Amino acid sequence: MPDPRSPSRRRRVATAVAAAYLAALGIIVLWPDHLDRNAGAAYAVLYDLLPAVTPRTMDFGLNIVLFIPFGIVLGALLHGHPWRVVGIAWLVPLLVEIVQGLFLPGRTSSAADVVANAVGGLVGAFAMTATRRILLHRRTRRRR
Q: What is the pTM for the complete model shown?
């Protein structure tokens, strides 16, 4: 039986998780109508937990959270290419909003969504880079 901690197994699992997330993200951002239209109960819970939050800030924050895993995937795939990560983290949300505005009449296109999605992507990429550096530092300290 293969070791579940082997690098090749971890890589396969990470690839499968990333592919599933990217497929789900594609469905979410390209769905013809707002998927959260019937999420009133979930929003009510969030507003109870965060009483200072407004609908606009809630939307902005959730758009950031939605794209953090995207940034993690970018950081993993484009390790060592920070400017490519930055460019893609901005370009993909921009293209998504253009597609929503031009081809999905049930959706709304927003510059704020581009900013929030890009920030989420950059936060995720930064988290991936920081985690990689911490783990590398720990590994090199153990070898000494």
A: 0.89
Q: Which two tokens stand for residue 113?
A: 């969504």
The two three-digit tokens of residue 100, written as one number? 């929503």
State pLDDT tens for residues 61-109: 999 999 999 999 999 999 889 999 999 999 999 999 999 999 999 999 9
Number of Cβ within 10 Å of residue 22's Cβ equals 13
Of the candidates 128, 123, 133, 115, the one whose C-alpha atom is nearest the C-alpha of residue 73 is 128
pLDDT digits (tens, 9 = 90+) for 118-133: 999 999 999 999 999 9
List all residues 6 or more positions away from 110 whose beta carbon is below 8 Å from its beta carbon: 97
Calpha distance 118→99 (Å, rounded):
16
Q: At what angle do helices 82-103 and 55-77 cross, to 10 degrees?
A: 130
